[in-house]
Design brief:
With 318 residues, the protein is an alpha+beta fold. The chain has helices spanning 2-36, 182-188, 305-312; strands at residues 38-39, 46-49, 57-64, 73-81, 86-92, 95-101, 105-110, 113-118, 121-125, 129-134, 141-149, 158-159, 177-179, 209-214, 223-231, 240-241, 245-253, 255-261, 265-271, 274-278, 283-288, 294-302. The longest helix is centred in the first third of the chain and has 35 residues, at 2-36.
C-alpha cells in the first residue's frame, strides 16, 4: 500500500512539474528578449575626459556591444556632449563610424573640413578618413555613435591631437549628412515597405512611414543603410525577415512592443531611448501601443559583402 501511494505521489509530482515547465518556458523566452533590449539611463553614462584628444569631458555608455547584430558590428553608444566638449580629430582605417546628434547642433569635422550641423542628423566617416565633433553651443547635445568594422572583432583609431575647438567653418558641409527630421517622412510619403495602409484618426498618417536616409553606397563596410520609420498610434510594421541583413533599432520617440521570431517568438515592451538588436535569421515587427507616434532609427548591417553587393544592385533582401 505504501509503495502504491509513493507511485501515485510521483505521478502527481511529474504532472505538476510538466505544468510548471509549460508555464515557465514562455516566461523565460520573454525574459531573453527583454534582456537583449538596452535602455538609455543617463545615470550610467561614464565620464571620459579628452576622448581621442578632444576638448573637455563627455559621458557615454554602450547600449549595444560588439557582435550584437553581426560579427562586424562593433557598438552603439549613447551619451551627452556638454558645451565646450567633444571628440578629437582622429582617423579610422579599419572601421567606419557615424556620430548622430538627436537634438541641438554641433560642429562636425570630416577630413579636416568643419561645418555646423543641426540635429536630428548624423554624419558618416568612412574607413580611411578622419573625423571629429565639437559642441560649440551653450546646451548639452544628446548623442549616439555607431561603428562597424571591415574585420570582425577589430577596432582601430589614430589620434591627431586636435580638439577642433575654434576651427574655421564652411557655410555648407563638404561631407555626407543624413537628416532625420520627421517632416521628411511626411513629405516623402513614407516609401520603404515596412508597413501597410490602415485606419487612423482624422488628420493622422494612414500607414507606417519609412524613408531611407542613407543607402548602401554611402558605406564601405557591410554597413548597409540607415532608415527612419514612423509607426502611427495603433499600427504595426509588417514582419521583416532578416535573411541577409541584421538591424539595430534605436527608439527616437514613443512606446510600443517589438516581436522577434527566431527559435521562439517573443514580444517585449520598448520606449524612447531603447536599443534593440536583431540578428541574421530572425524576423521582427513593431507595434505602437502608446499615445504618440513610435519613431525608430534603423541601422542595417549585411551578413557579408556579397549581401551588401546585392543591396547595391537593387535587391530588397533583409
Amino acid at each position: 500500500m505504501a509503495n502504491r501511494m509513493r507511485s501515485i505521489s510521483l505521478i502527481a509530482f511529474a504532472g505538476i512539474a510538466t505544468m510548471l515547465i509549460w508555464q515557465v518556458v514562455p516566461q523565460a523566452a520573454q525574459a531573453d528578449l527583454s534582456r537583449r533590449i538596452a535602455h538609455t539611463d543617463p545615470a550610467r553614462f561614464n565620464p571620459q575626459p579628452a576622448v581621442h584628444g578632444g576638448a573637455g569631458t563627455m559621458a557615454f555608455t554602450a547600449l549595444l556591444n560588439r557582435g550584437a547584430v553581426t560579427p562586424e558590428f562593433n557598438f552603439l553608444h549613447r551619451g551627452e556632449i556638454p558645451p565646450g566638449a567633444g571628440i578629437g580629430h582622429h582617423f579610422h582605417n579599419t572601421v567606419e563610424e557615424m556620430f548622430v546628434i538627436l537634438d541641438g547642433e554641433a560642429q562636425f569635422t570630416i577630413d579636416g573640413r568643419t561645418a555646423l550641423v543641426k540635429g536630428p542628423a548624423g554624419v558618416i566617416c568612412r574607413t580611411g578618413h578622419s573625423h571629429a565633433i565639437y559642441n560649440s553651443g551653450t546646451k548639452p547635445v544628446q548623442w549616439v555613435n555607431l561603428n562597424v568594422s571591415l574585420n570582425a572583432g577589430v577596432y582601430d583609431n589614430f589620434d591627431l591631437g586636435d580638439t577642433r575647438a575654434g576651427a574655421p567653418l564652411d557655410a555648407i558641409p563638404t561631407f555626407m549628412v543624413g537628416r532625420f527630421d520627421r517632416d521628411l517622412l511626411l513629405r516623402q510619403g513614407g516609401r520603404g515597405g515596412r508597413g501597410a495602409a490602415a485606419a487612423a484618426p482624422a488628420g493622422a498618417p494612414t500607414s507606417v512611414l519609412t524613408r531611407r536616409a542613407l543607402g548602401p553606397a554611402v558605406f564601405s563596410t557591410t554597413w548597409a543603410y540607415i532608415d527612419q520609420v514612423l509607426v502611427p498610434q495603433g499600427m504595426s510594421t509588417t514582419e521583416m525577415k532578416h535573411e541577409t541583413v541584421g538591424e539595430a533599432y534605436y527608439v527616437l520617440a514613443g512606446s510600443g512592443t517589438v516581436t522577434v521570431k527566431g527559435a521562439a517568438s517573443e514580444t517585449a515592451p520598448v520606449k524612447t531611448g531603447d536599443a534593440i538588436p536583431i540578428k541574421i535569421g530572425e524576423s521582427s515587427s513593431f507595434t505602437n501601443t502608446g499615445s504618440e507616434p513610435l519613431e525608430l532609427f534603423v541601422m542595417g548591417v549585411a551578413k557579408d559583402m556579397a549581401a551588401k553587393t546585392q543591396l547595391l544592385a537593387g535587391g530588397n533582401q533583409r
